[in-house]
Design brief:
alpha/beta, Alpha-D-Glucose-1,6-Bisphosphate, Chain A, domain 3, 7-stranded mixed β-sheet, globular
Amino acid sequence: MSDVLDAARAWAAADPDAETRAELEASIAAAEGGDAAALTSVTDAFSGRLQFGTAGLRGRIGPGPNRMNRVVVQQASAGLADFLLGREPHPSVVIGWDGRRGSEQFARDAAAVFAGRGVRAILLPRLLPTPVTAFAVRHLGTSAGVMVTASHNPPADNGYKVYLGGDDEGSQIVPPVDGEIAALIEQAAATPVAEYPRGEPETAGEGVWRAYVEATAAIGQADQGMQGATGPRAVYTPLHGVGLETVEAVLAEAGFPALIPVPEQARPDGAFPTVDFPNPEEPGALDLAMALATAEGAELIVANDPDADRLAVAVPDATAPSGWRMLTGNEVGLLLGWDAARSARGHGVLAASIVSSPGLGVIAEAHGLEFVQTLTGFKWVSRVPGLVYGYEEALGYLVNPGTVRDKDGISALVRLLTLASELHERGSSLSEELLALAGEFGAFESGQVSVRVTELARIPATMAALRAQPPSELAGAAVLAADDLALPEHGAIGDILRFTLDDGSRVMVRPSGTEPKVKVYIDATSTDGPPAARIRAARARVAAIAEAVAPLLEA
């Protein structure tokens, strides 16, 4: 106890942030007074260091090395600066930030440390979507990019996402680079941040943002006759994030009709007051959008997560209680994949993460294209050579790899609206196009079961239990193979378990890379009967398997 409290007192004495310093001092005082909860909180905050990995940093805001705060951000920036200086003599970095608590201050702290260490630091002009930062790395030709965001994580979190320029073309970092940077962060942390040299960063002009707007709008003008076309009346929500300004500018540039924004969620607000979790995948996140769409007589709902790198879509459905059905990430992924495949004219590669629908491979084969499955995480999807389109089922889509090398919810929205407008002009819709795809390629339905935990130890315990005793059958189908994808004979892909069923279904289990969850991905297919019957059959299998899987997660 004394060692932890001594470390906490030393941190409080040097903390440059008055808010986290006061929070820590109050916790220390409470712990000294015998408050067990306060002692547990302090111990957790000082029991280790927030791990720097392929997602950079992400965690709860608060004092201590195991939290997101100004000290940790400056230490990370010093380590990244040293890494860049070891690679080239005159490196540069562009820094962006979103509307979360602390994001702007973290970005400015990072920029000052970069500049003080001799790295040219360029701040974006204001809070902007993550895809703009990813774009800026390539547009400005910088050595790296940093985006301060926790994407769709809970309001208490923030993060520090790293891209590399040059041969990495603006993609997220991958091993072994993450480990090299982490080691340099550890070295930099040995020096108090108050002793770090600081410099004055540059601030980018509006030209970077305008260039992103023009490049993204262009992919909605690619189809003849699309500019100025009338499309379905659509409601849009950025979920209290930073997407609205850029989305409106892009769509105006591309000639699309204006969207109807959800007023309660239109402006950046890091408290995310209208949603439990600012993730469009979470139940209830689109309730306000659905109510507004019904009131406005809209035909489509589109949503970005708070940093606008993901896209969610909902369509009218008379059988749903709300009158709307949110499309799964795989449904949107296959629609956009089919759209990309027909435009590729036999040249290029389609890619998806290993837990995404196998349906994209069927579409690729039908169009004479190569299909590549990658490790989970968009950092792998974006790096596939020859890529013309890539996606992951967690609402991440890359439709313009020549411009951005990360998932981009705004460019995906543009292509989705382009497709929806084309179908609308033919008297069709996205729902009817999904039927058409099922008729041409078979129905590919997917579902997810996830368990959010408060005790992180439950995650490895669940995975260990499934490894020790995998199921022999699920929902009446025998398990033909139970593969541990962490083993070399299965590619050493990662902490993923794959169960192949004798009816052609597939179940994959893995820990979430960004949230305290165990996630199960279920895929089923059907080629029997007319398209609607195929979809119903595959959907029924997904539901049955999901029900059978849920008890297995209670480790």
